[in-house]
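Lab notebook, design round three. We kept the backbone fixed and only want residue identities now. Task for the bench partner: fill in a sequence for the structure below.
Input C-alpha cells:
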C-alpha cells in the first residue's frame, strides 16, 4: 500500500488530556479536510481501548490496527478507502489485552516508517488521552507534531498544563490547541 516517495509524510497526533473532549471528531474532520483539499491522507485509530473512528465515518471495525500489529492481517487487509473524498482509514480493530505494548512493537515501528516514507502527504493519528496512558507518548517520536484538543468548560487549566508538560517532556512538537465543545451562544 505504501511505496517510497521523495517527500516525507507529515504525521500528526491528535490527543487530549482526558476522554470525551472530541479527539476522534477532530482527527476525522482534519483528515477529511486535508483529503478534500487533494492531499493523500491516512487516518489511523490507535485508541484500541475506546475506538471511535469507525463509528464517526460509518466503517466496519472487524479488522484494523490491532490485527496488523498482532500479525493476523497485512496492511492491505486493514486499510479501508473512502471514495469521496479520497481518504485511507485504518480502524483500531478488536480490543487487545496490551494496546501500549502493541503500539511500542516492531510492527508499529515498521508501519510508521513505511507511512512516513510512502506516497502519503499526511498521516493523522487519533490517540487516547495523554494523561493516564502512555499510548500517545509512545507515538510522539514519529510525529511531526501534536494537536491537543481541549473541551471547553470541561477540562481544567491544570489538566491542560499537565498535558502540555507531558508532551513537552516527551519532546513532542505541539502544533496547536483546538478548543472544542464551545457554547457559541454564550
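Proposed sequence:
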Amino acid at each position: 500500500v505504501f511505496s517510497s516517495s521523495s517527500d516525507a509524510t507529515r504525521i500528526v497526533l491528535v490527543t487530549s488530556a482526558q476522554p470525551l473532549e472530541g479527539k476522534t471528531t477532530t482527527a476525522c474532520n482534519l483528515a477529511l479536510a486535508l483529503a478534500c483539499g487533494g492531499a493523500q491522507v491516512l487516518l489511523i485509530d490507535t485508541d484500541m481501548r475506546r475506538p471511535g473512528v469507525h463509528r464517526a465515518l460509518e466503517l466496519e471495525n472487524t479488522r484494523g490496527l490491532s490485527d496488523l500489529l498482532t500479525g493476523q492481517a497485512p496492511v492491505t487487509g486493514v486499510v479501508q478507502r473512502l471514495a469521496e473524498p479520497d481518504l485511507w482509514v485504518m480502524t483500531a480493530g478488536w480490543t487487545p489485552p496490551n494496546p501500549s505494548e502493541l503500539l511500542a512493537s516492531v510492527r508499529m515501528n515498521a508501519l510508521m516508517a513505511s507511512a512516513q516514507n510512502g506516497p502519503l502527504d499526511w498521516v493523522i493519528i487519533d490517540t487516547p488521552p495523554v494523561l493516564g496512558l502512555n499510548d500517545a507518548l509512545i507515538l510522539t517520536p514519529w510525529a511531526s507534531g501534536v494537536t491537543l484538543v481541549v473541551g471547553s468548560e470541561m477540562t481544567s487549566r491544570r489538566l491542560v498544563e499537565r498535558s502540555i508538560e507531558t508532551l513537552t517532556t516527551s519532546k513532542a512538537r505541539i502544533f496547536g490547541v483546538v478548543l472544542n465543545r464551545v457554547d457559541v451562544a454564550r
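Keep this in mind before ordering anything: The chain is about 35% helix and 20% strand.
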